[in-house]
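Please decode residue identities from the backbone states below.
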């Protein structure tokens, strides 16, 4: 069971009564950054990174 401290209670209370987020809220920036992390073909950048590491590892053996 999670122990809830006074700090988390205050934080959750603030989030609960805040209402709708403005258009420039941080979560919208995160979504925008996530869209930028894909290559033109639609492949995520992390997949290209993993593929590159595997190719480099196989090539060095």
């Amino acid at each position: 069971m999670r122990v809830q401290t006074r700090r988390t209670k205050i934080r959750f209370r603030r989030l609960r009564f805040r209402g709708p987020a403005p258009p420039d809220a941080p979560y919208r920036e995160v979504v925008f950054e996530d869209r930028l992390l894909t290559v033109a073909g639609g492949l995520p950048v992390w997949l290209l990174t993993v593929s590159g590491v595997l190719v480099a590892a196989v090539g060095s053996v």
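Observation: Residues 45-60 form the longest helix (16 residues).
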